[in-house]
Write a structure and sequence with these properties.
Elements (H helix, E strand, L loop, with lengths): L1 H7 L11 H15 L1 E3 L33 E3 L20 E3 L20 E3 L21 E3 L20 E3 L20 E3 L20 E3 L20 E3 L19 E3 L10 H5 L7 E3 L20 E3 L20 E3 L10 H5 L2 H9 L17 H14 L8 H10 L1 E3 L20 H4 L2 E3 L7 E2 L11 E3 L7 E2 L11 E3 L7 H8 L11 E3 L20 E3 L21 E3 L19 E3 L20 E3 L10 H5 L2 H10 L17 H10 L5 H16 L14 H25 L6 H23 L3
Parallel strand pairs: 1-2, 2-3, 3-4, 4-5, 5-6, 6-7, 7-8, 8-9, 9-10, 10-11, 11-12, 12-13, 14-15, 15-17, 16-18, 17-19, 19-20, 20-21, 21-22, 22-23, 23-24
Helix pairs in contact: 13-14, 14-15
Length: about 750
Amino acid sequence: MRAQYARGRLRQQDVVLAPARDQTARALREARRTGVLSLPARNLTEFPSQVYHLEEHLEKDEKKWECIDLVKIDLSHNAIPSISDEIGGLTSVTSIKLTKNALQVLPERFFELQTLTYLDLSYNRLEQDLSESFGALAGLKELVLSGNKLSRLPNSITLLENLEALHIEENTLTALPEQIGKLQKLHVLNAHSNQLTVLPSSFGALRNMQNLDLKKNRLESTGDALATLSLLKFLDLRQNKLVVFPVLPEGAALDQVYLGYNSLSTVDETSILRVKDSVTVLDMRDNKLAGLPANIACLYRLKTLDVANNDLSDLPPGLGYLKHLNHFIVDGNPLRAIRRSVISAGCESLKKYLRTRGAPRVGVDVLEEERDELQLERERLAQAEEGPPPASDYIVQFREAAASGSIILMNNSLGVLPSDLVGQGQFNFGSTLLHLNLSSNLLRSLPAVIGELVSLKTLTVEENELQSLHPSIAALPHLELLRLRKNSLSAESISEFLGDSPALGNTLKELDLRSNSLLTVPVEICQLRSLETLLLGFNRIESLDRFPWSQMANVSVVSLSDNKLRSLGRIYDAPLLASLSFENNNLTKVPCELGLCPHLRAIYMNGNPQRTVRGGVIAKGSTEILAYLKNKLPPNTVLSPPSPVAISRSVKSAQGSCKKPSSAASNRENSGTSRLSDNAYAAPVAPIEGYIPPSENAAIELELSKLSTQIDQLELQLDSHTLSAPKRFALKKELAMLRSKKIREARKLQ
């Protein structure tokens, strides 16, 4: 076994590296075959003499007529100190790469290589002035002289009329050749990390320049040198000593401008507007800018704006409207006009804030204006005074709607509906309109004319200021979807809207009341017998104890997330409940009876201070939660039937009269009776030890109701921004005392 391993293993002493001489011989042989000599990083200390006369060193099996003229030489990363004059005999060579060697000077015959198009002499030891014979390399297209110690370039370099790319970075150049403008084909100039103090007067003649890198020099101004470079796409002037904002070229080519780490104190508005149609990156960090011109917001293609570490105290509001701006760096500025929390929240938050402070620049493709509440109110009042918008404004949309059955009037700042949006008008919307979307407007109420659209199936009025809905809308015979998210509707307004027995009870399948001002769930909703989806998230609902869920015969999806719920009541009585969300509430207990719901498959309950279900169980998902809840109940437990409740105006008025009794005695009597009937919804499944008699229970619930009302009033007062600090402190103290009292009263019911 050991012998087999020894035979199959390549031992180190068996490995024989080819001598350097053999490697060179193979490379020379390959050069004769292909015309390409490649000997990089071979530790060469001299230029191989065989290269000058390749055909004189043929091996026995090579034929002279099979050799190809040498066209490319790569001897980079060696230690070659010099080149022989014989190099001039390689008249067919087009590319020479000698980067990272030890060359100090070039032989004069080197400049006889008329066919040379690429020459890389970077990172050598060229210190002396380069020969004026450089201009003889007339075919040169790319010249790389980076990383040497050149203090000047030969003037003859301006004779290289075919030169397209010049790399002279990391030298000690103090000036460029005065006639550099003659290099008409030059489109890449890398001259960073030198000691340039000024650009030659002919620089502006480089009309084909596209990529210009002059960072890490000593330029104080560029004068008019850049103004005519209309094809320039990339400009880097970082880490110079600029005190004058450069005159940028006019045209639509310049894409990236880097001016950071200079001494600029102002931005030339005229200059910056020259590139408004092209620039996407503008870097002006670490300067001395005291302000930005308003017209900088005209750079509508801008994606990155870096103005960090300047002296800015404010920012132009127009920057908030730039659609593509997603990298906005303003750190290190004394921005006293903008809160630190806004800046630290990121680019989109800062842009949104800026949009509230002013309008966008005229004629620029921008985001929509961010309007605050005062501005919205002014627009609504102005529109109300002007009356409904003329029908001519919507004539095209109305004609299309009459044919398609759908009309969308979003984002029109409507405070009043258009006059032709009626059931019996010239478009006969009463029989043709099926879907109506009025979202993102300024409507405070839905008028009776909506009730004339008797064929309507979908009504969407999201993100308005709705406070009321006309009862006639509840009589629409075919309405299936009613979406009222993000308005100001209260439970009372929904009750008045639905009334005693709305026609919606037989048709409505989805009701969306998220993000409104509901403090309770209107009991009238239980009349919507066909309702399948009920969305009540993001309100201020505290309890579901009084809602008759057993009457919601078809509801399957209920969302109650982000409220203030302390009790779910008997929500498990909903016979077809399949999905229930009550995340982010104040629930301390979750009814175990939810585990008995036959159709419940999805339950979401994170963000509650409850201890009924452990966090580990919640993390496992709905199936585990429901099984856990069911296992906490006694074996063979079944749901007790809820007490039937009639919903009528007479009952409501009777309940309303109980709130204003003629005497304290009648108050106690009536409240006890009404609370007793309401409490029937919260009857336990099985007997509970220490059960409080109904009369005492009703008194406690009455006290809890009063405390809840007082707490709501205090919370509303605290929402005001006009409170003084002492007043706010007093209200908070009173609120804390009421909450503590409410907790003590609630414990009596447990």
